[in-house]
Amino acid sequence: MGFFSLLQYALFLLIVTVLVKPVGGYLSLVFSGERTLLDPALRPLERLIYKLARVDPDEEMDWKRYAVSFVCSGLAGTLLLYAILRLQYVLPWFFAEYHTTPLTADLVMNTAVSFSTTTIWQAYAGESTMSYFSQMVGLTAQGFLAGAAGLAVGMAFIRGLARDNSKGLGNFWVDLVRASLWVLLPVSIVGSLLLIWQGVPMNFNRYVNAVTLEGGSQVIAQGPVAGLELIKNLGTNGGGFFNANGAHPYANPTPLTNSLGMLAIVVLPAALTNTFGRMIGRPRQGWLLFWVMAFLFTVGLLFNGWAEQRGNPRIAGEPNVTMQSDRAQAGGNMEGKEVRFGISQSVLTAVTTSNTSTGSYNSMHDSYTPAGGMVPLVNMLLGEIIFGGLGGGIYSMIMIALVGLFLAGIMIGRSPEYLGKLIGASEIKLITLYTLAGPVILMVLTAVAVVTEPGLAGLTVNGGPHGFTEIFYAYASSFCNNGQSFAGLSANAAFYNVTTAIAMMIGRFGLAIPALALAGLFAAQRRRPMTLGTLPTDTFSFGVLLVGTAVIVGGLSYFAALALGPIVEHLMMNG
Amino acid sequence: MNILKQIYPAIAITVVLTVLLGIVYPLVVTGLAQVMFPAKAAGSLIEKDGKVIGSSLIGQPFTGPGYFHSRPSAAGTGYDATASGGTNLGPTSQKLMDNIKTAAAALQDENPGTPIPIDLVTASASGLDPHITPAAAEFQVPRIAKERGLTADEVRKMVSKHTEGRQFGLLGEPRVNVLELNLDLDATRPMSKGESR
């Protein structure tokens, strides 16, 4: 792999690492209600919102009430978006000649669920389906709301581990508002302007009718793109303005916009490890989680980069074509990739987004080599623990730690505990529920899809093992609230719209609710003192245990499916 | 704990934040953008003789032998900027190999014996890629020189002018903007009516 690829990866990881501490500190200030620089501007607005919503900001919620609020918030967002999209044709900025894909009930239901669960599985092409009003008031707003809700739940989980003898996990409405106003909004304003500076459009003009240099006609879709594109990444949502998402030159014109976008995705989830460490009073614990995530991230990055740079051996067999990497071309597997990104920035994006349940992309994963395309898939199957989704990542990783501690405790005959909190019978039941949800849902849905006609009907571009991978990827992505796809799957059909929506909802609420319940149990416990017998959780060996647990739990669950898809295809391709 | 009690704040906060983040925020950013970066906010459009001929960010199809050609495109029927997308063909797909073989055969006629850079036979992810690699441009230099009556070095100089290096010396890849290069070609050495188009 080239020098410049490695340099870009290293620089990216360096910047993330450097930002973890300051951002983590800021987040802990915001969610503890302490003073920050933005208070003079935002506090009055915050108070107004609480007055309008009749929320008492000092009221603490126990886990049940927190969970109900979270679900109600998701429901409200889903219904509002459903209404906006179904009424699109009577709302402003609807261009009938361009927005030709009909917004059927099942497509809208799927879209509404997908946006409010931060999945943003887009079974539609933005520029031919969504009006500017929908993109703006519907999708952009939901990008904020769903991202903020996820962050809130993450904070509640952290509080569960940080508190003792307490029933309260915070106030969901306060967390939601603070996440939106103090975190997402300021970064979005600055970020969007940076994007526009690099060329991302932000206008309400009609599509432009150009006459090309050779005299042909080209209609160029426009819109309030920058506003959506920033929060798409920052909120770990992933839903882009255009069909080609981050590959579209308007959405992502330069390598800088791509790098900024990837930073926007990763920095908050990475910083949450630091916030976690601060709030439990043991920063080293947070750093350990960060380094485990960084390690797994790097492994995926290097493997994916190697596979894509090596390219497609069948093309290598073509005598006339060269994939050689040199000063004049990036080479490698360029099908479904953009020249400005080459291999390095494409792979960086594929790995960053698949790790963080963000569904954006700047290259077509369906065209990746089998080994290359397997990396985003495995990243998702591991459970979105490598930095993970905004808020969700921290508790996903901690769940793996809890499983690991449980197994280790059993092996050495100690009661498993984490940070002084006992992992007892009730806790294990919740952890098991959480851990089993993924494999059960994914296997069942994939199996149903590959044996039924409506399921197989989606395989319009690729068949065989690659087709199998497309279907498996679709459900993995929906369940992990990621949203990216092997886009060859024709997913805008009632079968997929309904089944992926089910996967999305279970992936979001079916995981967040056990997590909140667990947080509630932990908060109520009295913290046990550390003794010589306690398994230390901030050491290198614990890090190894974490990685091992993640790989074993994920690997064992999914190896069979991977064997049927990408592994077989890799063998076929090289055979 | 009453579920109904949570419904009112859910609706109220959703509506308030939707207005703030879905209406006020985009409008504010649009306003700032119109002031700070008007041309970019409007889509980096290029005008020639008072008409819009495209955008410097959006690729266009070129078929004439006197023009540099863009990459293959799967956006609609090719470079359809209302239908962005790639082929999504998997690496073991026969259709992919057929596409590549066909494109390669056509390009071989142009420059027999020279290996063809991969980006010229593969479709981009968006279908609207405005760039080709410097290798792909270099591959086309002999044809352009012949058609336009320039020396190869003169063409190379023009290609250099429209080649962007890695950003800040390390991000991304070097790339050549095809539309801007072709515009420059037309301005510097236009093809007369008699020549092939």
Summarize the structure.
The complex is a heterodimer of chains A (575) and B (197). By secondary structure, chain A is an all-alpha fold. Chain A is built from 19 helices and five strands.
Name the features.
heterodimer, A: 575 residues, mainly alpha, two-stranded antiparallel ribbon, two-stranded antiparallel sheet, 64% helix, 2% strand, globular, B: 197 residues, 2 domains, three-stranded antiparallel sheet, 6 strands, 9% strand, disordered C terminus
Number of strands of chain A: 5
Q: What is the radius of gyration of chain A?
A: 23 Å
Would you tell me the structural class of the helices and strands of chain A?
A: mainly alpha
Main β-sheet description of chain B: 3 strands, antiparallel
- Uncertain stretches of chain A: none
Overall shape of chain A: globular
What strand line-up does the widest sheet of chain A have? 1-2
Helix fraction of chain A, binned, reads: 55-70%
Task: Describe the 3D structure.
The complex is a heterodimer of chains A (575) and B (197). Chain A has 575 residues and is an all-alpha fold. Chain A has a domain of 224 residues. In chain A, 64% of the residues lie in helices and 2% in strands. Chain A contains 19 helices and five strands. In chain A, the strands form two sheets. A two-stranded antiparallel sheet of chain A has the order 1-2. In chain A, strand 1 and strand 2 form a beta hairpin. In chain A, helix 3 runs antiparallel to helix 18, helix 14 packs across helix 15 and helix 14 crosses helix 19. The two termini of chain A are 23 Å apart. The model of chain A has no long low-confidence stretch (mean pLDDT 92). Chain B has 197 residues and is mainly α. Chain B has two domains: 36 residues; 145 residues, no CATH class. Helix content of chain B is 46%, strand content 9%. In chain B, the strands form two sheets. Chain B has a three-stranded antiparallel β-sheet. A two-stranded antiparallel ribbon of chain B has the order 1-2. In chain B, helix 4 packs across helix 5. The longest helix of chain B has 34 residues. Chain B starts with a helix and ends in a 9-residue tail after the last helix. The C terminus of chain B is likely disordered. At the A-B interface, helix 1, helix 2, helix 3, helix 6 and helix 7 of A face helix 1, strand 2, helix 3, strand 3 and strand 4 of B.
